[in-house]
Structures are given as structure tokens and as C-alpha cells.
């Protein structure tokens, strides 16, 4: 009989067995301290007998029925999945009040997220369990789960645990199927569908009662679980749902998902963060006072001892007290609690030693089996433990009783599962095994788990990996492919790289290794193209050594696909390698089935790449052929085909057909949760359709921008760039005059290597508009190193066209007409190559500027008239605006003022309909030029002032220079002050503050400050007082 609950061989005359204090404590559901008090108070009979741990108190079992059973005091901790009364909340009252306030807010419909941070053993679980107990008492539905070591946690690990069917609330909605069925994760092809299922379930559950979700140890959470917290946290601010997350902030490492994603969680969910500190002396004294009635001197000794030995860690302190009791240094006598001599007590400097001492109390055979449990993991299913160790029910029960008696393990309620009371118990058991024994256990566990009906590849892979068993490779690959199906690229890459390390030394598996390198390159294609190419180069060497024609065919195509994201002209390489892909034998396609490469070599994917290169005719042909030949293909491939059709129709000036195709593509991409592609369809629809053909539909544009932002947040790029830095937004930000936001977003995307050609185009255009021509030319050189001799095409073809247009504008701005001519000819060459219709008016505008600079106004007029015709059929309002404005300027130069006014009216109508301040400022300047040229210069002041205010806000220095040239300057004012600087100086001299000056002139206080500094520099002064004196001296004050 185990001594975990009984004295060995001891039965009283009335048939009673003698029970240890832990066994009695479990019977009543209280602590051993309470049992000692009951013995001291005479509530329970007990006597000291010799047990395995020396002389101990034992209680006769018959006394349990006769003993009074008062309401149990709060126990030291309740299982996470079903919080019970928590421990005494010493030193945590303020934190608990904050949690309780958040819970009450959630009950009232104002949900949210609370992050509880702290070191191991500091009391996070105790605090959260106490909240759970309060929540249950007030009718809240409480659900919870913990995370375990990252390598062993599958995608959505804690959520899978939380929504297990056997934990479903009775008579309430059924949990989200994607997280309540063991294999359901494989059926969900992506992130958003699963997120929405979980959110829908929680919302439905919250209609019955408020909901509290407890997520523990999220420092070990996988990336997908954290994304799910982000998604739900953003949606529950007006719901009766509270999420409480605990994590160890001190131990977070840069390679862990929470380290990278925590700023996003805090910002997006507006989470409240609570950080738990270690206990101070007052806290420890409160604990000692509550548990023991010691003399003042003894209490002071004990508190000092505990603080010096524990560094204030609550778990350490509780374990130290338990150790002192077990060693009878702190003991209960008839006279009360007595504290013995502490100076002679060997107190371990680290808790590890203390835990080791606890484990030493177990019998050797028990420690042996507990080592197997430690290898299994934080939670130990009893059936797995027994299958691994191959022991009888009785033998395993004996070990469990011992582990419970010495408080190494706890039982999970209603589950045949145990867990270690603290992670350090498991860690100590694990690390004290020799490597050979650890590997042996890992191998045996992996074999047992792999033989189950539906094994989890993540868990099996971990155990085979730790065993050093090459069978880990196949399970790592299976795990990586499952993650790839959900577009969890970071998990995919990590699993594949571990599998590669295993395959590398096996000469018999080099073909498998080469294919895996290709799959790994697909995982890095978006986030690290250079690494993807390096992996493909290695695969190519293996393929050549093996003479494998399938690999030799697929690898060049994969390389060309990667290079399309590097803003390189890989079109010829892509087209040539595709010929080989079309001829792939069925045996090779069978090898690719189920892997990310199957999608890569799809005709639909090829059509999309062609469309990005501007080969719109071939793209349409391949996409339509795919849909005709494969009507029941994978939804992601169908979405890709429709995406290609949308791109092609947009480029060929068929906006209605393009929008229909983009919308169809989104339907399929949402089915498969390919949310970066949902974002891409919005991106291109906004860029090539809405802003080209319908820029005056402002509300529709903003609605699509909101939809796009949501899609990008759920995509692979959501964690790579700051919130709201999405490509769809940037051109709209430019149009709406939010240039600094546009610059920040484009810079963020460029730093993440996302759409480098497009981002450089945006930044170069901004640099030009703000007068930084050197930086603009540098960006152009980075993207187009061969300058105007760059041959088409580049991927994201429209971006290349626009960048060439920016280069031509820059050359014209500089007055370098030969250089401008070469860029304009390059633009025409690119347009001719593609057959694209959008943007055909751009060369005409550039030629008009070119010939006007030469003084040939007639040829300039002819080109711009042709440009207006192209921009009007089909109707492209932004291009029409540019054409009308340019024709108005040319007509003014030709002294044809009626025609100038006619085109100016058209330009003004268009500019005001877009809500585009910079475009409107250009029109205002053109209008002012007309008024000045036609003898009505006195009417131009208001137009120039309005244009100046816009230019100053945007930092548009070239436009400011034009305005300065047009505005009359007071000749009596020295110092070279501009007209606007004179206005600012006059108002400052009248006593207005910067804010009042800004309001009067419709500019920002920051701009006022800039003008003042310029005034000080020009006049050689340094104060407002000196500036005021200057204004009075020269009669500027009215």
C-alpha cells in the first residue's frame, strides 16, 4: 500500500486506516495547514507515527465521518480549466481590483483584454483563478487553457484545448467546429474563417451569459493563437466578453511570437496591462501572520529568512514554508506553532534544489515513471503515460498517489489527465535524466502517439526530434504542410528547416531534401526572397547531382516566381521555365500533390504572374483556360485565376469586367483564408480601377480601404509592418494630401521587402513633389539601374510605368530635355510592349511639357489635346484633370484666354470632386497665372494664398517656389522675406500667438513656427520682440 495516503500496515481495532495529512486535506478539500489547525483545535483525532518520511501526524479514517466539516478555506490553487476559490491574495489587492473592474465592465457589455505579466511563480495563476471564482459566482461562463513549450504547441494550441468537446458548456452553443474537433484544423485552409468561427461562437455564448476567457502562459503560445487574440480582442469592446492573458514578460525572447506580436496586441485591442511584482517584507509578514501564530521575534526571524531565501517570489516562499514544516523546523505543538533554529537549516539558494529535495521523497520506481511523465509534457494523459511505461493500473495508481501526496502533481477535474504542480518540477525531472534515457522516452512516446487514430503531427514531430530519430522528418514535414495550408508561414518555415537538418546527412533521402528545399523557398518567397533563392540554388545542385528531371524543371520556375517579388525582370526566365512545367509528367505532379508547390505550378498561378508583368492578353488566355479545364479546382487556384482576369481587364480599360473578377476572386480567397490575396485584390481594384476611373467616388473608396485594411491585418504581412500601413491605402493617402502618412507607410512596406517597385515609385514621387530631387533619382536608380534603357517588363508592371513617368517629370523639372526625351521614349516603349490602355495619356502630357520647354507651343498643344482624347475614352478623371490643367496653361501662354478659362473650369470641377488638395492647388496656381496674364492680377491673391497654405502643409517646395515667383513682393521690406513670411510677421507683431496665427492663415502651428525660424534667420534676430520691432520699423503693422 502506498504511503501517499496511508501509514504502512497500520489498521486500528475498529478497522480504520491511518491517513496522512495530505490525504485528509484532499478529503476535505482544504490545505494541510488547515488540517493541522483542526488537530490543534481538537476537531480531528491524530497521533504521530513513523512513516516513510519519518515521524508524521496520522488521522484514523473513521474520524473523517465524525469530524466537523466547516466551509473550506481558500485553497492554494485550483485547476486552470475550472477555477475554484483562490489563495489568499496577499500583495495583489490593487491588481485584483483592476481585474474585477474589467470583469464588471465586461458584464455590462464593455469587454476587452487584460494582460497579466510576471515572472514564474509570482502569482499570475493565483490571481487569475481568483477572478475566475468571482466570475463563476456571478454567473459568468469561464473557459480557460494554458500553453506549453513552443515546439510542442500546434497552431491554435491553447484554443484547441479550451474548446475540447468534453469541456463544452452544457445547454449552451456548441464550440466553433474548427477548434473543437481534433482534426478540424486541417480542414480550415486559412486564418480568417477560423477566427470568425471562434468569434461567432463567443458572441453567441455571450448572449446567454457573460464570458471570461483565461489564457495562461502565452509566452509559449504559437503565432496563430496570438493572432486569434488580436482578432477577437478588436471585436469585443461592445460585448460582454473579457479575455485575460498571463505571460512571463522577463523570459520573452526575440525569436518567440509573443515578443514580436505583443506591441500589436496592446495597440489593436487597447489591452490593459498588469505587471505583478515580487512580494516585499510587508507581504511576507501578512502571509506568515495569517498562517502561523508566532511570537513577534520568531515571526521577524521567519520573514527575514523567507525574504533572503526566496527573493520575494511567492511560489518560492510557499515551497520554503512547506519544506520547513516537513522538516519540523516549523511545527505545530499543543502550545501552538514553534519556529526552530534556522541558522542550521540547509536552505537551497535556488528553488531547483528545493524541488529536487521534494522529488527525493519519492520511491525510486516512482521517480522513474515520473521522468517519463516529464518527457510527455506539462499535462500527462493517463492512458498515454500507461501505454508508454507499460505498467499495471495498480503500479501507476501508486505512483500517482505518491506524486499527489508530496504535491508534485495535481489532478485535472473530470479529465483522466494530470499535470505538474509547477513547471520546475517537470524541468527538474527532465534535466536530471541522462541524455540516453531522455531520448529513449521521447522515442517511445512518439511511437505511442503516432499509432493513435489521428495523431497530431506537431506533438509526434517534437518527440521524434528530441529522440534524435530520423522519423521526425516526415512528421515535421506534415506539420509544416498543415501550417502552410493555414498560411502560417513562420511555423511552416520552422518545421521545414528542422526537417531539412535531419535529411541533410542522409544520402538516401537527397531527392526528398531537394523537394523540401523548394517548399521552404515558397514559405520564404514573400518575407525573404534572397533566402528563398539560396534554398533553390541548393536544391538545384542536388537535382543536377541526381539527374532528376522533375526537380530540374520545377526549380527554375520557382526561382522566376521568387524574382518577380524582387522587382527584377525575370519574365523571359518565367516564360521559358513554364514550358517545362506544362510538360511535367503525372509522376512528378503526384510528388507535388499536397505540398505548397502544387499551387505554385498551377496554370492559374502562372496567369497571375503574367498579369503582374503586364502581359494581359496571355494572362487572360491562361486564366480562362484554367477555369474551363478545372471547374472544380482548389478554391485558392480559382481565386487566383479570377485575380489574373481582374488585373488584365483593369489594364485593358474594362473596369466593369475587372471589378466583377476581383469580387469573384475575393469569394474564393475568403473560402481558403488566403487573406494576403484578399488584400491584394482590393489593392489593385483601388489602384487600377477606382482611382483611375472613379476617383470621385470618395465614400466608396474609403469603404474599400476599410475592407482592405481588415484583410491585410489578417494576412502574412499583418505582423510585418505597423498597423494601418497597408499598400491599398498609400495612393489614397497621396491623393487626399496625407503625404507624411503615405511616406511612413511606404517606408514600412519597403523595409519589409513588400512591393519594392511600388513603394519606391511612391517615395520617388513624394521626393519630387517635396523638392528632394537627389533622393528621388536615387530611388529610381535602385529600381531601374539601367535607367531609360531598362527593358520591359517588371513585375507589378503599372508601378514600373509610373516610376518611368516620375523620372521623365524630374528630368523636365531639371530642364534636362535630352534626358527627359529618353525617359519619355522608354515610357512609350513599355506601353507598346504591354498593350495596356491605362496610362496611355501620360506620354502626351510629358511631350507637351517637353515641347513647351522648347518654345514649340503648337506641338505641345497637339500632344496635350491627344492626351485629353486618350484620357476621355475610357474616362480617366485624374488624367483628364492633368490634361485640362496643362491645356489651360498652354492656352494662357498662347494668349487664348477664353480657351484657357474653358479648360480651367473643367480642371476645377474634377479637382474639387476628388477631395485632392494638391491637385486643386496646382489648378489654383494655373488659374492665378491666367488672371495675371489677362490683366486681372488683383484677383489672383486669394487663389495663391489658398495654394500656398496647401503647399506649406504638404511641404511641396517646388510648388511654393512657383507661388513665390507669381506673388508680388513689397519692395520696401529688406531681408528677402516671402509674402507669407510677411503675413506671419505682421500677425505676430499684432500680438497673436502661433496657434492664433495658424488659425488666421489656415495653416498649422508647426508651419507658423517654421516661418518664424526662417524670419529670424533672414533678419539675423532671435526673438519675437526683435521681430515685432522690425515689423513696426518697416510699417508692417496695420
Structural write-up:
With 1038 residues, the protein is an alpha/beta fold. It is built from 52 helices and 14 strands. A five-stranded parallel sheet has the order 6-7-8-5-9, sandwiched between helices. Strands 1-2-4-3 form a four-stranded antiparallel sheet. A three-stranded antiparallel sheet has the order 12-14-13. Helix 23 packs antiparallel against helix 24 and helix 30 packs parallel to helix 32. It starts with 5 loop residues before the first strand and ends in a 5-residue tail after the last helix. The N terminus is likely disordered.
Keywords:
1038 residues, alpha/beta, 5-stranded parallel sheet, 4-stranded antiparallel sheet, 14 strands
State the gist of this model:
The protein is 63% helix and 7% strand. It has 52 helices and 14 strands.
Amino acid at each position: 500500500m502506498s504511503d501517499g495516503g496511508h501509514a504502512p500496515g497500520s489498521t486500528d481495532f475498529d478497522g480504520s486506516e491511518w491517513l496522512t495529512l495530505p490525504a485528509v486535506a484532499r478529503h476535505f478539500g482544504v490545505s494541510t495547514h488547515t488540517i493541522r489547525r483542526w488537530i490543534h483545535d481538537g476537531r480531528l483525532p491524530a497521533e504521530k507515527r513513523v512513516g516513510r518520511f519519518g515521524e508524521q501526524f496520522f488521522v484514523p479514517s473513521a474520524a473523517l465521518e465524525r469530524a466537523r466539516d466547516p466551509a473550506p478555506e481558500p485553497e492554494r490553487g485550483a485547476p486552470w480549466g475550472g477555477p475554484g476559490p483562490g489563495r489568499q491574495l496577499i500583495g495583489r489587492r490593487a491588481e485584483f481590483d483592476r481585474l474585477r473592474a474589467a470583469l464588471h465592465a465586461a458584464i455590462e457589455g464593455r469587454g476587452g483584454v487584460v494582460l497579466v505579466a510576471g515572472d514564474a511563480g509570482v502569482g499570475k495563476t493565483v490571481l487569475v483563478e481568483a477572478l475566475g471564482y468571482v466570475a463563476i459566482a456571478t454567473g459568468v461562463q469561464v473557459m480557460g487553457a494554458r500553453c506549453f513549450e513552443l515546439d510542442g504547441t500546434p497552431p491554435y494550441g491553447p484554443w484547441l484545448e479550451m474548446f475540447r468537446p468534453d469541456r463544452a458548456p452544457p445547454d449552451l452553443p456548441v464550440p466553433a467546429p474548427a477548434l473543437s474537433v481534433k482534426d478540424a484544423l486541417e480542414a480550415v485552409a486559412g486564418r480568417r474563417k477560423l477566427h470568425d468561427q471562434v468569434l461567432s461562437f463567443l458572441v453567441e455564448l455571450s448572449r446567454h451569459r457573460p464570458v471570461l476567457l483565461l489564457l495562461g502562459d502565452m509566452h509559449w503560445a504559437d503565432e496563430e493563437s496570438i493572432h486569434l487574440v488580436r482578432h477577437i480582442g478588436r471585436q469585443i469592446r461592445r460585448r460582454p466578453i473579457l479575455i485575460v492573458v498571463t505571460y512571463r514578460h522577463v523570459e520573452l525572447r526575440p525569436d518567440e511570437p509573443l515578443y514580436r506580436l505583443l506591441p500589436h496586441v496592446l495597440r489593436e485591442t487597447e489591452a490593459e496591462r498588469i505587471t505583478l511584482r515580487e512580494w516585499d517584507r510587508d507581504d511576507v509578514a501578512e502571509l506568515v501572520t495569517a498562517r502561523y501564530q508566532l511570537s513577534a521575534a520568531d515571526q521577524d526571524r521567519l520573514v527575514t529568512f523567507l525574504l533572503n531565501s526566496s527573493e520575494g517570489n511567492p511560489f518560492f516562499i510557499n515551497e520554503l514554508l512547506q519544506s520547513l514544516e516537513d522538516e519540523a523546523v516549523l511545527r505545530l505543538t499543543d502550545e501552538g506553532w514553534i519556529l526552530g533554529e534556522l541558522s542550521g537549516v540547509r536552505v537551497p539558494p535556488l528553488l531547483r534544489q528545493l524541488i529536487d529535495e521534494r522529488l527525493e521523497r519519492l520511491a525510486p520506481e516512482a521517480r522513474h515513471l515520473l521522468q517519463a511523465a516529464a518527457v510527455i509534457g506539462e499535462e500527462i494523459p493517463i492512458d498515454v503515460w500507461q501505454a508508454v511505461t507499460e505498467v499495471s493500473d495498480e503500479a501507476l495508481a501508486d505512483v500517482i498517489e505518491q506524486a499527489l501526496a508530496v504535491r508534485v502533481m495535481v489532478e485535472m477535474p473530470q479529465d483522466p489527465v494530470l499535470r505538474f504542480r509547477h513547471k520546475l518540477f517537470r524541468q527538474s525531472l527532465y534535466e536530471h535524466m541522462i541524455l540516453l534515457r531522455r531520448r529513449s522516452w521521447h522515442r517511445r512516446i512518439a511511437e505511442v502517439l503516432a499509432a493513435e487514430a489521428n495523431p497530431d503531427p506537431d506533438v509526434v514531430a517534437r518527440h521524434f526530434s528530441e529522440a534524435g530519430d530520423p522519423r521526425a522528418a516526415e512528421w515535421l514535414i506534415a506539420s509544416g504542410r498543415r501550417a502552410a495550408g493555414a498560411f502560417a508561414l513562420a511555423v511552416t518555415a520552422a518545421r521545414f528547416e528542422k526537417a531539412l537538418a535531419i535529411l541533410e546527412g542522409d544520402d538516401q533521402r537527397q531527392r526528398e531534401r531537394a523537394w523540401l528545399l523548394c517548399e521552404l523557398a515558397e514559405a520564404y518567397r514573400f518575407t525573404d526572397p534572397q533566402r528563398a533563392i539560396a534554398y533553390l540554388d541548393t536544391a538545384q545542385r542536388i537535382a543536377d547531382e541526381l539527374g532528376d528531371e522533375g526537380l530540374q524543371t520545377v526549380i527554375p520556375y520557382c526561382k522566376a516566381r521568387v524574382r518577380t517579388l524582387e522587382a527584377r525582370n525575370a519574365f523571359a526566365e518565367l516564360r521559358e521555365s513554364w514550358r517545362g512545367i506544362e510538360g511535367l509528367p503525372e509522376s512528378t505532379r503526384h510528388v507535388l500533390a499536397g505540398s505548397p508547390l502544387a499551387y505554385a505550378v498551377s496554370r492559374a498561378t502562372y496567369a497571375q504572374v503574367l498579369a503582374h508583368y503586364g502581359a494581359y492578353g496571355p494572362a487572360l488566355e491562361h486564366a480562362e483556360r484554367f477555369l474551363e479545364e478545372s471547374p472544380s479546382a482548389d478554391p485558392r487556384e480559382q481565386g487566383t485565376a479570377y485575380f489574373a482576369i481582374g488585373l488584365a481587364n483593369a489594364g485593358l480599360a474594362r473596369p466593369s469586367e475587372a471589378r466583377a473578377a476581383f469580387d469573384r476572386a475575393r469569394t474564393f480567397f475568403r473560402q481558403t483564408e488566403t487573406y494576403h490575396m484578399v488584400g491584394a485584390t482590393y489593392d489593385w481594384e483601388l489602384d487600377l480601377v477606382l482611382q483611375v476611373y472613379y476617383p470621385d467616388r470618395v465614400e466608396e473608396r474609403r469603404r474599400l480601404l476599410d475592407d482592405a485594411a481588415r484583410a491585410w491585418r489578417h494576412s502574412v504581412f499583418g505582423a510585418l509592418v505597423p498597423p494601418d500601413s497597408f499598400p491599398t491605402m498609400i495612393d489614397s493617402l497621396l491623393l487626399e494630401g496625407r503625404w507624411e502618412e503615405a511616406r511612413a507607410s511606404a517606408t514600412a512596406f519597403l523595409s519589409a521587402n513588400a512591393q519594392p517597385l511600388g513603394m519606391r515609385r511612391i517615395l520617388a514621387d513624394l521626393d519630387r513633389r517635396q523638392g528632394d530631387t537627389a533622393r528621388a533619382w536615387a530611388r529610381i536608380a535602385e529600381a531601374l539601374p539601367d535607367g531609360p534603357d531598362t527593358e520591359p517588363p517588371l513585375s507589378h508592371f503599372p508601378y514600373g510605368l509610373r516610376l518611368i513617368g516620375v523620372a521623365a517629370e524630374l528630368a523636365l523639372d531639371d530642364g534636362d530635355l535630352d534626358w527627359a526625351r529618353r525617359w519619355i521614349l522608354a515610357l512609350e516603349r513599355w506601353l507598346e510592349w504591354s498593350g495596356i490602355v491605362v496610362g496611355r495619356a501620360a506620354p502626351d502630357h510629358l511631350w507637351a511639357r517637353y515641347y513647351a520647354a522648347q518654345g514649340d507651343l503648337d506641338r505641345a498643344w497637339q500632344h496635350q489635346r491627344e492626351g485629353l482624347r486618350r484620357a476621355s475614352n475610357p474616362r480617366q478623371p485624374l488624367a483628364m484633370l492633368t490634361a485640362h490643367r496643362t491645356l489651360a496653361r498652354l492656352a494662357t501662354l498662347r494668349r487664348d484666354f477664353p480657351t484657357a478659362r474653358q479648360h480651367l473650369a473643367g480642371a476645377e470641377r474634377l479637382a474639387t470632386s476628388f477631395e485632392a488638395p494638391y491637385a486643386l492647388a496646382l489648378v489654383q496656381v494655373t488659374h492665378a497665372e491666367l488672371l495675371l496674364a489677362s490683366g486681372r492680377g488683383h484677383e489672383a491673391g486669394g487663389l495663391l494664398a489658398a495654394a500656398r497654405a496647401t503647399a506649406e502643409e504638404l511641404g511641396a517646395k517646388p510648388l511654393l517656389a512657383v507661388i513665390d515667383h507669381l506673388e508680388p513682393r513689397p519692395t520696401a521690406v529688406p531681408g528677402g522675406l516671402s509674402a507669407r513670411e510677411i503675413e506671419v510677421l505682421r500677425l505676430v507683431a499684432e500680438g497673436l500667438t502661433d496657434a492664433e496665427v495658424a488659425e488666421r492663415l489656415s495653416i498649422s502651428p508647426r508651419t507658423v513656427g517654421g516661418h518664424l525660424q526662417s524670419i529670424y534667420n533672414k533678419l539675423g534676430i532671435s526673438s519675437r520682440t526683435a521681430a515685432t520691432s522690425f515689423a513696426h520699423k518697416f510699417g508692417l503693422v496695420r
